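Supplementary notes for students who missed Thursday's class. We covered one full example, reproduced here. Read the sequence, then the structure, then the short commentary at the end.
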Amino acid sequence: MEYVQEGPYRFRIRREGDMRVPGMVFASAELMRDAEKSLEQVANVATLPGIVTASYAMPDVHWGYGFPIGGVAATAVDDGGVVSPGGVGFDISCGVRLLAADCDRRTLEPVLRSLMDGLGRAVPRGAGPGGLWRPGEHQLERILAGGSRYAVEEGHGEERDLWRCEDGGHVADADPGQVGARARERGTGQLGSLGSGNHFLEVQEVTEIYDERVAGAFGLAPGQVCVMIHCGSRGLGHQVCSDHVRAMDRAMARYGIAVPDRQLACTPVASPEGRAYLGAMAAAANYGRANRQLLAQAARRVLRREAGARLTLVYDVSHNLAKVETHTVDGEPRTLCVHRKGATRAFPPGHPELPEDLRAVGQPVLIPGTMGTASYVLTGVPGGDAFHSTCHGAGRVMSRHQAARTTGGPQVRARLEADGIAVRPASSRGLAEEAPEAYKDVTAVVEAGQGAGLCRKVARLVPVGVVKG
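Structure (token representation):
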């Protein structure tokens, strides 16, 4: 794949063949070497009908289903622009929730073992069913329509949780009627659970503040204890993606659409299939928000019991969504369907969708690292590129199978605990698959995003204890 370097953290993939726009990769030269395989997918996305400006790749980009993970693309709704489930992924609304405690690391130290034991018992995880709330049919309908808002109404949280959550805790245009029976069946048994893979609940310490004013607005201070939760919509979201990929694959010919990879199955946003997918995706996103809400409440109960501490929500933001947004393209405001897959929105100061108490400083952007490495809190910046988007994490460099062949779970656990990190895994193999060496250097990823003008660092957090899916 031919590309040219345009700046220290910008690489352009030239248009060729059926590409409608160029590709743009935000990365350092070193990260670019890890991204080589996924550039083919960046170019494939550039062929989608209605795509505007560029097919973007974030610094953590790696191979995914259709779209690369770390891919961003926007299509013009009023010009035949399409929506593609591959541009969202199977774990719809997978995202990160950060809560800040009213205590510091020293306060926590004497009770860390009992705290982690308590979290290990309180947080359901693993690939199968088993959650904190098994909703009835009517309740599931309300969850799909109302997300965190309905969960809070039912006593699983507090009002602040809603205005410190993307979209106020729920996506308003959800259409639960587009969520099929099998997706509902899978979702009923998994609400309030981490799942497996790279999902986790981490107890962390704020070790560095880069911007005191913004950190203060977010509610973060040096030495403070935080809890970070990374998970999504579980089997329900996976099934929604599978169902609608099949429907779009059958429908593409009717719209005269051909794509270089069937995993990019798509239809116009305004088509019946496009509207059905967006409605189902929004419903699955609401399920994901409610899922994180329940896990946050479980963490609150354990922290209160074991440490006498209270957790307050900093922010909750997704990194697997397609959203209809207004952005300026060629000097004109356009209505776009912005796909962010393994990419986080990063709205700048003054953006009208931000809660009032954050509007002056910008949106919190939550970037988890790996077990044993730092995580970061960033903020959006004026003029941010890629429709105000940035990375979502470290990004894999090894498949799970490769990682498990390279090291063993007991060795990973021993290494982490030697570094003072208490680990409560669901399985030994799961630890091996998520070993830190299976990922890129999250600090290099974050600094590349900052260098490219996508975001700005606010705080650095390091793990104290990990509950692993």
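Commentary. The radius of gyration is 21 Å. The chain has a mean pLDDT of 96. If anything here is unclear, bring it to office hours.
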